[in-house]
Amino acid sequence: MTRCEVLIVGAGPAGSTCARLLKRGGLDVLLMDRAEFPREKLCAGWITPAVLEALEIDPEGYCRGRVLQEIREFRTATIGGKEIVTSYPNPVSYGIRRWEFDHYLLVRSAARHRLGEPVRTVERVADGWLVNGNIKAGLLIGAGGHYCPVSRALGARGSTEKAIAAQGCEFCLTEEEVERCGIPAGVPALFFTEDLQGYGWILRKGRYLNIGLGSRETKELPRRMAEFCAFLQERGGIGEIPHRFKGHAYLPYGNPGARRVVGDAALLIGDAAGLAYPESGEGILPAIESAIMAVHTIVAAHGDYRQKNLEPYAAHLAARFGGSAGNAATPAWLRHYGGALLFSSKWLTRRLLLDRWFLHQGVQPLPLFDPDRPAATPTIQKQPT
């Protein structure tokens, strides 16, 4: 029998961050994931400087032997429309490869881990949880993405959930293909549907090309993906796309069927809790911030993980991201006029679409957990909507 105080299911950015900070607080942590690491992970693969700050990552150190592509420019349009170029004097994002990034965070967490082991059974027992019949934990944390088995065990998945579906791929170009490629490195191109209910992207990170599309109209995703690829071919700059697209789903925060994130001796973080930004679909920064908020709550509970002592975590999420289901939708006035209005204005494109929705500029970072000064109620500033 393996015993730990905290078992975290899912070793992605949320799980690894949570494990690292809990170990900093002196807790015995075990990380569990069904995948072996490094692993393939579908994601557009860019992060803002806020992610590096929240994770205490030095860019110069991280980029040694890993991809960290500076992003200072965006191209945005409706699909088939006139593109707007928006430039910044300094890096406002970085392109990463998720298999490198996630593995880096896992190793840095220095937590005990069991990889390549799926969760088969989850049982509530008198003094905590029993997982797979041989792992005993006082506190169970679900960090395993949209289909996290912990969220299922808690009955946290709502019948009215409206997930966003995405398909994408990332592949390495040969040196010859890099020379022929008309896609500049470090310049994401974002192409939105007219009703702003989805968008496609293409981003080159050195020799790696990432292509994908996400949509609220999940049943239409395969058709829209095929049409988007045809559009990219017609637009030029790329040859044939040699890799099959893989899909995944996620919940935007404020979804009408929002998940219950806290239970007795259990809580959910990251995509398992349904925390992706509604407008951009980004999940990495919300995942990391949810891990930080969870750690503050867990340490303040002093080993008593009854639900009432974990409820402050749900309150922290609401304070940070807002508690209204309306946050999951694009503003009604903008949906009415559609993408044509947004992309006819360079000012709106920069200030609303990029600065606010994608780059989250002006948002104050969360206080990191400090074992010498553990804060039971950290000051959490609400993000602007």
Structure report:
30% of the residues lie in helices and 23% in strands. With 385 residues, the protein is an alpha/beta fold. The strands form three sheets. Strands 1, 2, 8, 9, 10, 11, 17 and 18 form an eight-stranded mixed beta sheet that branches. The chain has a seven-stranded mixed beta sheet with strand order 6-5-13-14-15-12-16, sandwiched between helices. It has a three-stranded antiparallel beta sheet with strand order 3-7-4. Strand 13 and strand 14 form a beta hairpin. Helix 1 (13-24) packs parallel to helix 4 (98-109) and helix 1 packs parallel to helix 8. Residues 324-328 have low confidence and may be disordered.
Chain-wise SSE layout:
Elements: E1 2-9, H1 13-24, E2 29-33, E3 46-47, H2 49-55, H3 59-62, E4 69-71, E5 73-78, E6 84-87, E7 93-95, H4 98-109, E8 112-115, E9 122-125, E10 128-131, E11 135-142, H5 149-153, E12 164-172, H6 175-180, E13 189-192, E14 198-205, E15 208-215, H7 221-235, E16 246-250, E17 262-263, E18 266-268, H8 284-301, H9 307-321, H10 332-337, H11 339-342, H12 346-358
Helix pairs in contact: 1-4, 1-8, 2-8, 8-9
Quick synopsis:
With 385 residues, this protein is of the alpha/beta class. It is 30% helix and 23% strand.
| Poorly predicted ranges | 324-328
Shape: globular
Strand content: 15-25%
Output the structural class.
alpha/beta
* Number of continuous helical runs: 12
DSSP, total strands:
18
Radius of gyration based on Cα positions: 21 Å
Average residue-wise pLDDT: 89
Gap between N and C termini: 47 Å
The percent of residues in helical segments reads 25-40%
State the order of secondary-structure elements, H for helix, E for strand.
Answer: EHEEHHEEEEHEEEEHEHEEEHEEEHHHHH
Main sheet record? 8 strands, mixed
